[in-house]
Specification:
- By secondary structure, the protein is α/β, with parallel strands linked by helices.
- It has a single domain, classed as TIM Barrel (Alpha-Beta Barrel), CATH 3.20.20.220.
- Helix content is 41%, strand content 17%.
- It contains eleven helices and eleven strands.
- The strands form two sheets. A nine-stranded parallel β-sheet has the order 9-8-7-6-5-2-1-11-10, sandwiched between helices.
- The longest helix is centred in the C-terminal third of the chain and has 22 residues.
Length: 317
């Protein structure tokens, strides 16, 4: 079922969902189930599965030469989505990214997903590799999320890369990312909304936001989206702070602001256990307010650590 249909069928009730981080290469499927099982009591209608592009390591040989070796840290999403849908009978939402894929590889992945009965995809540009100073497109691939979105939208119209005959029209419900505090590469919010509106006009049917810790950011973002003619569901992305190190890492990695009250409360903690309690309690109150604001879904970035999300969800659902 499409995410838009899940939201419509909920009749205004806020739904629960979460994002799954695939285990590192060499782990088993049981690691995925261990990350999902504790959260199934909240009846998520869908589960997101992230994708991480290939990265590089440099292998030094005995002669002193360095060899650049490509490797993937984590398995892809197709098999993981199939396993989730088979075991839990819920919709799996794979992330599609630009980096690491040619257009042909993207098309093949979409065909596989369609044959599996997957109805939703989340279209993202993806992050740059650690070894690169900025995002570098894969040769023969897409440079921007809009290009990737266009390919999915074309397949929904029966337009494939090379076929010149009538082709099957896929019916993917396409999601995109939104940034309540502006994408770090955008010069300003106006430009950010311009491109977000373009994605919706191209066929995006729902938006999942970057994490935030100040609900006024979400409210303002929704208000500005509506003012710019963006009328699709806007799903807040959420993650509790569980470590004092995140006071530095979250703003640095995700380019967001942390509220002063939250920062001061964490800095006053005597140990990491207290930090975790402060972060969870903050998120509980944040979620209660988001439900009152009419958020269609509370979507948690669990990083495959279900325990904090489980504690929060038990207070909300």
């Amino acid at each position: 079922m499409k995410i838009t249909e899940h939201i419509e069928n909920a009749g205004g009730k806020t739904l629960f969902s979460f994002e799954l981080l695939p285990p590192v290469k060499g782990k088993s499927i049981s690691d995925i189930y261990d990350a999902i099982d504790p959260l199934m009591e909240f009846n998520p209608p869908f589960i997101d599965v992230t994708y991480h592009r290939e990265d590089y390591i440099y292998k030094q040989h005995d002669n002193g030469l360095l060899e650049k070796v490509s490797y993937r840290k984590r398995p892809g999403t197709v098999a993981i989505c199939a396993a989730i849908m088979n075991r839990y009978k819920v919709d799996a939402v794979p992330h599609l990214i630009c980096g690491g894929f040619t257009k042909e590889e993207t098309e093949n992945a979409l065909i596989d997903l369609q044959f599996l009965g997957i109805d939703n995809v989340l279209v993202l540009r993806g992050d740059a590799r650690h070894a690169d100073s900025g995002f570098i497109p894969t040769p023969g691939g897409h440079a921007y999320a809009t290009d990737l979105l266009e390919q999915v939208a074309n397949m929904n119209k029966g337009k494939y890369l090379f076929e010149d005959h009538d082709a099957y029209q896929t019916d993917f419900c396409i999601g995109v990312a939104g940034y309540p505090e502006k994408h770090f590469e955008a010069p300003n919010l106006k430009t950010d909304f311009k491109y977000l509106k373009q994605k919706v006009d191209m066929g995006a049917e729902f938006i999942v936001t970057q994490m935030f810790f100040d609900n006024s950011k979400y409210s303002e973002f929704v208000e500005q989206c509506r003012a710019n003619g963006i009328n699709v569901p806007i799903i807040p992305g959420l993650k509790p702070i569980t470590s004092s190190k995140q006071l530095i890492s979250l703003p640095k990695i995700f380019h967001l602001d942390l509220p002063e009250n939250l920062t001061e409360a964490i800095q006053a903690c005597k140990n990491e256990k207290e930090v975790k309690e402060v972060g969870i309690e903050w998120m509980i109150q944040q979620c209660k307010e988001l439900v009152k604001l009419g958020a269609p879904v509370l979507h948690f970035y669990t990083m495959s650590n279900p325990e904090p999300t489980r504690r929060i969800a038990r207070e909300i659902f």
